[in-house]
Design brief:
By secondary structure, this protein is an alpha/beta fold. The chain has 19 helices and twelve strands. The longest helix has 22 residues.
């Protein structure tokens, strides 16, 4: 977390993917060990009710139940101000054979768990999990319905999301411009959210998970966290090992990153996925884009869109920045590669609709121009509170130079992303524990995907080694995260673990 955030096509890939590490950055963080002890002891139960029909997302799902719980803004001073956390529950389809509640986090940081659960329903997990568990999701602090971070208006967000970021081969002037852009965004968030920004870090959200556990009335919390959700799970297991039930951490982030892993390695994974998409297209004569030279055609199309953006029916234009965002969206799921080449083929013929639709989905933008959630703002806010850095251009330029050969499309955006956290106006009121090792927690399943574009497979290996009770399960395939329809082997292992607590042998690899 805290890396790769910024404007434009080279940086957009680092957004919303639930991808980035949440530990100290290259020694810049000064954190006492262990984490400060909170004196707040959660009590009470969650009062579930039908979701408000006026909510544009949850109001359309009649099965969903909603509630709010009150928690301290700062668990270290529990008698101070409070915030309201929004939670939602989708009852198990097979109530007679229900195991219990399963808490879900879909990543980000900043993804609205409630929106995703409301829109996807039980399809968000393997069928047997939806049958046997009450699915519980929440909007973490700083997100959407839970004391949301506010930085930009919708119109400002449209402009910002479409503005090119740092070039692939940045000059000294480009680096200075990137630093100025970071300062502008940080100032907007400070003006819009004030000192709330100090209280939305991952440690506080992990404490919120303990409050949710108590509200659910269970002695042990079963949890499935995707991508950044693995960071929440790892911190929860470290802070509350006695409360840890069956935890699955899928698409793990790096909880003890170096400069290289935090500001370079994800770019290499994204580059690999992009290169494989082009190779797949070139190997299939039916691919509608590029005529066997898709990368060459892609570069030519991006250059044309820089010079002559395509007009869209809603009054916007599809430039190369939004086109890149649309393509990057498809890298997260192998099934979406078809959409990428169809969108590129359409844009080549003057029709930018599909690529713009993909970009809007990535940015969580609705057709009416509003944004379904504040993930574009919550992502950097949570990232930077967890991972303060320095505004040193020399530092990030050196990282860029180390990775540019392996990630020519992404190295500059990855590296320059650290500048935002270097100028961030607040420090965390409740910093990350150190070390994050889950000592004393029940067995934990870590899932890694070898072709994951957003959370490199090596990060899953590291998390499995970092957490004392963790075992690694590997999906040999493409896409971000493994649980949920990509592999029967992975899904069966997840179901068995959640229902019975039985883990596959450590190091098991699934190839289906």
């Amino acid at each position: 977390m805290g890396t790769g955030f910024g404007r434009g096509r080279r940086l957009t890939a680092m957004l919303l993917a639930a991808t980035l590490a949440v530990a100290a950055c290259g020694g810049d963080m000064t954190i006492t060990s262990p984490s400060p002890t909170a004196s707040f002891v959660p009590t009470g139960t969650i009062d579930w009710k039908s979701c408000p029909v006026t909510d544009p997302v949850t109001g359309g799902n009649p099965e969903l139940l909603c509630a709010t719980i009150t928690v301290p803004r700062d668990y270290l001073t529990p008698d101070g101000p409070t915030i309201e956390l929004a939670v939602a529950l989708l009852p198990a389809a097979d109530q007679a054979n229900k195991v219990g509640p399963l808490l879900l986090n879909f990543g980000g940081p900043g993804a609205s768990g409630i929106n995703i659960l409301a829109e996807s329903g039980r399809g968000v997990v393997p069928a047997e999990i939806g049958n046997r568990f009450d699915l519980v999701a929440w909007d973490p602090r700083g997100v959407n319905r839970s004391a949301p971070v506010n930085c930009l208006s919708d119109i400002e967000m449209d402009d910002w999301a479409a503005t090119p970021g740092i070039p692939d081969r940045p000059t000294t002037k480009d680096w200075t411009a990137a630093l100025n852009d970071a300062q502008w965004f940080a100032d907007k968030c400070k003006a819009g959210s004030g000192d709330l920004l100090a209280y939305i870090g991952t440690t506080a959200s992990a404490r919120d998970m303990e409050s949710i556990r108590v509200g659910l009335g269970v002695a042990k919390l079963d949890y499935l966290g995707f991508s950044y959700g693995t960071a929440l799970g790892a911190v929860f297991a470290t802070l509350f090992p006695a409360s840890t039930g069956h935890l699955i951490l899928d698409g793990a982030v790096d909880m003890a990153p170096t400069d290289e892993s935090e500001y370079g390695e994800q770019g290499v994974s994204l580059q690999g996925a992009l290169n494989r998409l082009f190779a797949w297209c070139d190997a299939d004569s039916a691919c509608p884009f590029g005529g066997g030279s898709s990368r060459k055609a892609f570069d030519a199309l991006m250059n044309r869109l820089d010079d002559r953006p395509l007009e869209l029916q809603d009054g916007r234009s599809l430039n190369s920045t939004l086109a890149w965002t649309g393509v990057i969206m498809t890298l997260y799921n192998r099934d979406y590669w078809d959409y990428a080449v169809q969108g590129l083929a359409g844009a080549s013929e003057g029709d930018g609709y599909l690529l713009s639709l993909l970009a809007d989905a990535y940015n969580d933008r609705s057709e009416d121009g509003s944004y379904k959630s504040n993930i574009m703002e919550a992502f950097p806010a949570i990232s930077c509170i967890d991972s303060p850095t320095t505004p040193s251009i020399a530092r990030y330029k050196a990282i860029y130079e180390k990775f540019v050969d392996r990630a020519p499309d992404f190295a500059a955006g990855q590296a320059s992303g650290g500048l935002l956290c270097g100028v961030w106006p607040y420090k965390s009121a409740d910093p990350l524990p150190k070390p994050i090792n889950g000592a004393g927690a029940a067995p934990i399943m870590v899932v890694g995907t070898t072709g994951d574009p957003a959370t490199p497979y090596t990060w899953a290996e590291r998390m499995a080694n970092l957490l004392e009770s963790a075992s690694l399960l590997t999906y040999v395939g493409e896409g971000h995260t493994g649980v949920g329809g990509k592999s029967a082997c992975i899904d069966d292992a997840a179901i068995t673990f959640l229902v019975s607590g039985t883990l596959p042998a450590d190091g098991t690899r699934c190839n289906d």
